[in-house]
Amino acid sequence: MSAIQQFGMIHSQLVNYIIQHNTSMIIPHSIFQTVLRIPSCISFNNKRVLFKRMLIHHIQQQMQQSGRGMNSIHLSVSRKRILQDTFSALGGKSVSEMYNRLSIEFKNEKGVDAGGLSREFFISLSNSIFDQNYALFVPCQNRTTFQPDPRSLIMDQNNVQIFSFVGRIIAKAICDEMLMDVHFTKSFFKHILGIPLQFQDMEGVDHQMYNSLLWVMQATSEQLEQAETTFEINMDYFGQMRSIELVPNGKNIPVTIANRAAYVQLMTESRMSNDIKQQIQAFKRGFYQLIPLRLISIFDVNELELLISGLPDIDVEDMKKNTMYEGTYTEESNVIKWFWKAAESFSQEERARLVQFITGSSKVPVGGFIHDRLKICHISGGDRRLPSAHTCFKQLDLPNYSTYEILREKLLFAINEGGEEFNIV
């Protein structure tokens, strides 16, 4: 860690104060660009302010280079064909044209777009993007997050253009400060931000494969030898199983203690990158046309979801009423009482991060958590261990901390830094 990063970590309150009161001054300074790369150093609100200023500056440069002025685009769409109509109208627009404000009209409906119709348009478009009839994205096992359907290009090669357009339209919503009901997997958000994947990200995509990879990382030499695992993967291809070698001659290379880390990384890349490589590249190509990676990368994975979909209004009392306890914990356990006390004390952003940590998404179920109950389980480790989570099961594993202060400190660290990654052997 550099001296600048150490300063940012130790004096985060001072850094945030400077940013909050001198945003126009610090943007050009590389020292603050370095500090921005420290996830827990800059608050989300300050990052949003900085991002907005940098994005406006970028758009102004793009418009000057194009020789165009800012105008508005009248967009008339049918609610039943909102994705098709939007793609037909905007798919061929240049980058500079896409920066223009949209004026939305829903066909056969009266109304003037003073902002409300645009907000409704982006939310309705979100629902259409994830409509299973289009086979663009598939829900993961936690039922709240999505990633590209590996079969989408097999069914229609033209979907490459649609993925690029989806990336563009989500970036457009960010530029226009409009929210979309978009909740991707952690791994897909990492792709957008250019962050390397870890096998722990698999838990939110394929829990069975995650457990298999976790077993490989923890198995003894004898267990690996008995399992006879090799460097190949079996894929379900429209009902037919196909074997794909992860490396040349992979079917003849056994997984051992010495090479298991490489095997796990290759399996991770195969499942979360290679299977949907074209879709990822197309999406990023469209997204980066409006918002370059150097601008969006100031956010972490959780912040990017909040930037796109907004900070949810989380009712802690509703969470509490719809949480089950396992192991030695009950509602009367001190650590459980401290947990809810900490949740009540959290800011809106911290509550959103808590829900993200437990469920894999900031999305609050329609009608409240009664439709998607949470679970808190006891784990050993005491004050030495961080909380961890299993997003597929909406489960929080919570050590029996000795004081409220320790619980709150550990919980905040976990939800801000991704504490589930610290408990893997």
UniProtKB/TrEMBL annotation:
EC number annotated for this UniProt entry: 2.3.2.26
Domain of life: Eukaryota
GO terms, molecular function: ubiquitin protein ligase activity
PROSITE patterns (alphabetical): HECT
Pathway(s) served: Protein modification; protein ubiquitination
A single BP term in Gene Ontology: protein polyubiquitination
SUPFAM superfamilies to which the protein is assigned, alphabetical: Hect, E3 ligase catalytic domain
The keyword Transferase belongs to this UniProt entry's keyword annotation: yes
Any one of the GO CC terms: cytoplasm
InterPro entries reported for this sequence: E3_ubiq-protein_ligase, HECT_dom, Hect_E3_ubiquitin_ligase
Active-site residues annotated for this sequence: C392 (glycyl thioester intermediate)
Recorded catalytic activity of this chain's protein: S-ubiquitinyl-[E2 ubiquitin-conjugating enzyme]-L-cysteine + [acceptor protein]-L-lysine = [E2 ubiquitin-conjugating enzyme]-L-cysteine + N(6)-ubiquitinyl-[acceptor protein]-L-lysine
Protein name: HECT-type E3 ubiquitin transferase
Organism, as annotated: Streblomastix strix
Taxonomy of the source species: Eukaryota, Metamonada, Preaxostyla, Oxymonadida, Streblomastigidae
